[in-house]
Design brief:
This is 4930578I06Rik protein. This protein has about 290 residues and is mostly helical. The protein has 2 domains: about 120 residues, no CATH class; about 100 residues. Helix 1 crosses helix 4, helix 3 packs antiparallel against helix 4 and helix 8 packs antiparallel against helix 9.
């Protein structure tokens, strides 16, 4: 308490509350502590800080403000473990002891302050400051991911237009997929045709001369394999062509039925209003001149 001077409490008051509490802790010569884990010391520091705010608000001189902090600290220590009757007695005795250090108005304000705060909530003060508390504190560090930065509103578009564009894009992607499937089937049939041709040729002995009939059968079988592959490919190409035409028809229909973007209301500019009024006035003057 030796460092708690009028200049010190004045500086505490001039700071914002977090900085003011920290400066008050240094003036009281307290060691640094964890506000969460040592809640008792944190509440005690709050109580002393609030006594400064009270005294300054009531117009106490800075010398008396420092004495109010001392008064508060002594009262909390002397009433620890006492009954409420004993606490009221201790408060009255301390007020008499400090009678010469405060004028009557400030002494009455000090009495009202401690009665309405400390005495009225005495059991709560005793529970928090007068006995050890079992603190079960779990601290978790969670990473909060901020949402992505939204794009500028100028790049936005009407909801219905956006939906129509998405549908057109899906149809275009389906058409590309159909063409890709066609190319894959062609390659698959080519490999299958080549494989069947190799099987047919491998069935013929390499050193044996083929008779005319055997050669004709071999050629006919090769032609049959090729025709079957071409037939399957042609059927698939026809089906793919119909599918692509259907997709293009859907795209054309969506394009023709595309929603019209909403237009902003056109407001006349101040200059246009003045020009319109002037034109009407001139027209009225000309009509009056013709009547004359």
């Amino acid at each position: 308490m030796a460092l708690l001077t009028p200049q010190g409490v004045k500086k505490v008051f001039q700071f914002q509350k977090p900085e003011g509490r920290e400066h008050l802790r240094r003036l009281l010569n307290w060691e640094e502590f964890d506000e969460l884990r040592d809640s008792r010391r944190s509440i005690l520091l709050d109580t002393l800080y609030e006594s400064i705010i009270f005294a300054v608000g009531k117009g106490f001189p800075w010398v008396e403000v420092a004495k109010v902090v001392k008064f508060t600290e002594e009262l909390l220590k002397e009433t620890k473990g006492c009954s409420i009757t004993e606490a009221v007695t201790i408060l009255g005795n301390k007020l008499r002891d400090y009678q010469g250090q405060f004028n009557t108005t400030h002494l009455l304000a000090l009495c009202d302050y401690f009665y309405n705060t400390f005495i009225c909530h005495y059991k709560l003060y005793q529970y928090v400051l007068g006995q050890e508390q079992d603190v079960n504190l779990t601290v978790m560090h969670l990473e909060v991911c901020a949402p992505p930065q939204p794009r500028p509103l100028a790049e936005g578009k009407d909801r219905e237009i956006w939906k129509q564009e998405q549908q057109v894009a899906e149809l275009s992607a389906a058409e590309v997929q159909k063409r890709t499937n066609m190319l894959l089937l062609k390659e698959e049939l080519r490999l299958e045709q080549e494989h069947l041709r190799q099987e047919t040729l491998s069935a013929v002995p390499a050193e044996q001369a083929l008779k005319r009939e055997e050669l004709e059968n071999l050629i006919n079988e090769a032609i049959h394999v090729q025709i079957e592959c071409l037939k399957e490919l042609l059927q698939y190409e026809i089906q793919i062509t119909f599918d692509i035409l259907d997709l293009r028809l859907q795209k054309k229909t969506l394009t023709l039925n595309a929603p019209v973007p909403s237009l902003l209301p056109i407001t006349s500019q101040p200059g246009q209003n003045e020009a319109l009024k002037s034109s009407k006035a001139n027209k009225g003057k000309k009509e009056k001149a013709k009547k004359k």
